Amino acid sequence: MKVVVLLKRVPDTEAKILINQEGTGIREDGIKYIINTYDEYAVEEGLRLKEKLGGDTKVTVVCLGPAEATETIRTALAMGADDAVHISDPALAGAGPFTAAAVLAAAIGAGGFDIIFCGKQAIDDDQAQVQCILAEMLDVPQVNAASSFEIGAGGAAAAVGRRIEGGEEKWESSLPVLISCDKGLNEPRYASLPGIMKAKKKEIRTKTLADLGFHEVPNRGRSRIVKWLPLPRSGECRMIEAGEPADAVRELVRLLREEAKVI
Amino acid sequence: MIFDGGHPGNSESKARQAPDRRSGEDWGLTPPPGSCIFLIPARTGPGGLANGANHTMQGTVMFIDLTEEERMIQKTARDFARRDIAAVAEQSNRDGVFQDDIYRRLAGLGFMGMTMPEEFGGVGLGNLCLSLALEEISMVCPSTAVAVSVHNSLANYIIHTWGSDELKRRYLPRMTSGELIGVYALTEPNAGSDVAAIAMSAARDGGDWVLNGSKIFISTGDRAGVIVVIARSDPDERTRGLTAFVVEPVFPGFSVGKIEHKMGLRASTTVELVFEDCRVPAANVIGEEGMGMKIALGSLEGGRIGIASQSLGIAQTALDEAVLFARERRQFGERIIDFQATRWKIAEMATNIDAARLLVRRAARLRDAGRPCGKEASMAKLFASRIANEAVYDSLQIHGGVGYTQEFKIERFFRDARVLEIYEGTSEIQRIVIAKKVIDEYERIFPA
Ligand SMILES: Cc1cc2nc3c(=O)[nH]c(=O)nc-3n(C[C@H](O)[C@H](O)[C@H](O)COP(=O)(O)OP(=O)(O)OC[C@H]3O[C@@H](n4cnc5c(N)ncnc54)[C@H](O)[C@@H]3O)c2cc1C
Ligand SMILES: Cc1cc2nc3c(=O)[nH]c(=O)nc-3n(C[C@H](O)[C@H](O)[C@H](O)COP(=O)(O)OP(=O)(O)OC[C@H]3O[C@@H](n4cnc5c(N)ncnc54)[C@H](O)[C@@H]3O)c2cc1C
I want to staple B167 with a disulfide (CB 3.0 to 4.6 A). Which of B25, B163, B326, B352 is the partner? Predict the structure, then answer.
């Protein structure tokens, strides 16, 4: 079975994000990058499937990202993925969901696949669109935000659970299928030290737009980010210190009327 | 390192004849091995060294940046420490419980065979990687780092470096897998800093050796699967009368004695080991009879780099906790981090930590390059252990009264730090080593 795992390199959740001066993106200095958290569940699920099925099941990581993303890819290989495709082209910097899906589709379609695992969203831009567009482009079913996964008998179908408000949905799908992973699906493993050493010898195939058969960035014009803006500063919080609740309310009303002028 | 103007005294020495700008090179001598730091960035081109290129470049002692592989190893250690070890660290230190489960899982990730070759189930990494791992683990639980350090840099290392093929095959695979925890038993009631005073006797009896005596202060001794013991095989020879053995706790005549109740490192056990007519097969001699002192001295560097790394982790946590606390705490209407008294402490701590890290990594890289690093390892250990103690002191001070309670992490790290200046050679012993090497270097340059 051919398992594909999508991987995105995103800023560490602990990093403080600042917009650059030109308003064209974030300031990259001093930021650490990690594997998108939801993609870690995808890697883990791919590896579990491989361990379960054994034989010639192969887990291939596909990553669209800058040259520096090799370290992120290498981490997935150290966790146990077999090989990787790294789509890296300066023209793809800041690619939107449609563009990303188009180049991923080209890369994945060429190699063939039975299951694609990916995160339910990237924790940087939170768009959660790439996988949906990608599944459409590849013309395969998709189940999003999976919280459980079983491969059916004979590896012919997939049973997927989705946690929803107040319960769980159970889905079944034929293969090939795209499944995006939610928290709780599994506990991702650490990259072991022997795994890190082995990962050095695993193949990362780098592809440019031209390698994937594109002469220009696909469908660039459909949507684009106009400008990046910092969030407005949240106002100062003022605590009303008064003994009795009635006094506190009186003070609050006074402030709303006289200072905030909202009532 | 011989810095400019660092020549001895202002007496009528030959230093006067030396050129004004003084350095090892100016004297026309090859600087003592490891005395120069060439700082070159780890990335030397697209992908650079990070892509598995040869990173033990000749003539290069030190990279400030870590390679991709090193960063990945550091990250696994960091993630495991901050999630899995952190989950149990407070409790196990409070209860004084050794975490068997954590060691098993560390072993599962490869941390118990870091520097051993693959043929023995190891990962084949160097001391720099071991140092990174120990620093990360110590940031969360210095107790856990003790056993990892001793196991790797002493037990594994000694058996692999001096042991026979049979010993290596018999023990190393089970040590790297974590099945057997390796410990190191050198210290005795009357032989601490003075290793040559070891009295525990080893006598031949037929094909076996019979050990009698006791070892004290042995880290993780009660959990040991393999004990590397140095004993006296010849009462008439001082330094050449010592021999190293591999003892298994199941050997007849071995028992665990007193368990110490310590100020810190409470999740690491420290015990007495008692040998009463303990029979050890002749095949379990490490190296040859009489090599004990050589082995003890030859394993010092790795152990010292290990404890220096542990010191770094403790110092880093002290700084982290100080800044995070001081940002929140307000007195006199201001955040205490805005008082100059606090900021000066932070500046001092951060500078010391960086300096210590440079010393530790230099020593580790030298060792990985197979170059002499005795002086550098001692410098790293002396300096890192001292600044770690200063850092926990200042950090606790910044915490004020709550720092003195178990509510805050700094209380545990304050207690854990104290031993850094005692074990793996006290600070006084490090100074003795460093001074001797430095003076010897001068002797070579300006023979008396
Ligand atoms: C928590 C812990 C864990 C340990 N784990 C191990 C272990 O796993 N295996 C093991 O073998 N040992 C272990 N030890 C023992 C440790 O290595 C010794 O405590 C250390 O070597 C110092 O020896 P000592 O305690 O006998 O002190 P001493 O050697 O008696 O020293 C006492 C004081 O005298 C000073 N001094 C001694 N000689 C000189 C000199 N020539 N010049 C100037 N000052 C000097 C020392 O610096 C020190 O300040 C451990 C100790 C502790 C506390
Ligand atoms: C064991 C123990 C027993 C105690 N017993 C008593 C008791 O019986 N009765 C009682 O009333 N209290 C008691 N205390 C409280 C003790 O007096 C306070 O802890 C002490 O006054 C420090 O206050 P703090 O802990 O709030 O620290 P903080 O005042 O918050 O100080 C935190 C840090 O900021 C520094 N700092 C604060 N202000 C400045 C400034 N302006 N410039 C520069 N640095 C500054 C401090 O020096 C310290 O390093 C006890 C405390 C302990 C630990």
Answer: B163
Instruction: Tell me if A196 and B73 make a contact (CB, 8 A cut-off).
Output: yes
Question: Which runs of E-coded beta strand occur in B220-318?
Answer: 226-232, 242-247, 254-259, 270-281, 285-286
Region B421-444: mean pLDDT is 97
Q: Which of B153, B125, B106 is nearest to B310 (CA)?
A: B153
pLDDT value at residue B256:
98
Q: What is the pLDDT of residue B12?
A: 39
Nearest CA in chain A to B121: A194
Mutate to test the interface with B, among A32, A40, A190, A202 (most CBs of B within 10 A): A190
Q: Structural domain of residue A261, as residue ranges?
A: 235-263
CA dihedral over A238, A242, A244, A249, signed as positive or negative? negative
DSSP string for residues in B384-410 = HHHHHHHHHHHHHHHHGGGGGSTTSHH
Which SS3 state, helix, strand or coil, does residue B436 take? helix
Query: Of the given ranges (A87-91, B44-48, B238-242, B334-338), which has the lowest mean pLDDT?
Result: B44-48
For ligand 1, the distance from its centroid to the CA atom of residue B232, given in whole angstroms, is 19
What confidence category does residue B197 fall into, taking pLDDT thresholds of 50, 70 and 90? Answer: very high
Contact B76 A190 (CB under 8 A): yes
Give the pLDDT score at A93: 86
As to burial, measured by CB atoms within 10 angstroms (0-12 exposed, 13-18 middle, 19+ buried), residue B348 is middle
Ligand nearest to the backbone CA of B427? 1
B122-126 own/partner pairs: CB under 8 Å, 24+ apart:
B122/B156, B122/B172, B122/B176, B123/A193, B123/A194, B123/A197, B124/A197, B125/A193, B125/A197, B125/B73, B126/B364, B126/B367, B126/B368
Instruction: Tally the residues of chain B.
Output: 448
Beta strand B285-286 pairing with B242-247: antiparallel
Does A254 share its domain with A200? no
- State the complex-level ipTM: 0.83
Q: Are residues A132 and A259 in the same domain?
A: no
Contacts of residue B58, Cβ cutoff 8 Å, sequence gap at least 6: none
The residue whose CB lies within 8 Å of the most ligand 2 atoms, and thus the one to mutate among B321, B329, B336, B339, is B336
Looking at the structure, tell me whether residues A56 and A155 fall in a common domain. yes
CATH code of residue B77: 1.10.540.10
Length, in residues, of chain A: 263
Examine the pLDDT at B16 and tell me if it is beyond 50.
no
B72 and A191 within 8 Å at the Cβ level: the answer is yes
Question: Which of B222, B256, B422, B436, when mutated, tests ligand 1's pocket best, judged by the most ligand atoms within 8 Å of its CB?
Answer: B422
Q: Using the beta-carbon criterion (under 8 Å), do B72 and A78 form an inter-chain contact?
A: yes
Residue for token pair 């402030």:
A255
Taking contacts as CB-CB distances below 8 angstroms, the residues of chain A near B52 are 200
Residue tagged active-site, from B136, B272, B376, B424:
B424
pLDDT digits (tens, 9 = 90+) for B118-170: 999 999 999 999 999 999 999 999 999 999 999 999 999 999 999 999 999 99
Q: Domain of residue B122: give its range.
A: 68-180
Counting the structural domains of chain B, the total is 2
Which of these, A120, A7, A119, A128, lies nearest to A70 by C-alpha position?
A7
pTM of the model: 0.88
Residue B108: phi and psi, rounded to 5, are -60, -30
* Ligand with minimal distance to B404 CA: 2
B424 catalytic? Reply is yes
A93 and A148 in a common domain: yes
Q: What is the pLDDT of residue B227?
A: 98
Q: Is the CB of B419 under 6 A from ligand 1?
A: yes
Q: What is the pLDDT of residues B232-245, one digit of tens each?
A: 999 999 889 999 99
Rounded distance between C-alpha atoms, residue B89 and residue B91, angstroms = 6
Q: Encoding tokens for residue B114?
A: 């870091």
Average pLDDT, rounded, for chain B = 88
* pLDDT for residue A221: 58
Which protein residue's CA is at the shortest distance from atom 50 of ligand 1? B217
Q: What are the residues whose beta carbons fall under 8 Å from the beta carbon of A221, sequence distance 6 or more? A: none
